[in-house]
Amino acid sequence: MIVLGPDPIDIAAVAAAVGDPAHGAICTFVGTTRETSNGDERAVSALDYEAYTELALADFAAIAAEANARFGPLKIAIAHRTGHVALGEASVAVAVGAPHRGAAFDACEYAIDALKARAPIWKRETYRDGATAWIANAAP
Question: CB within 8 A of 40, min separation 6: which ones?
Answer without folding.
Answer: none
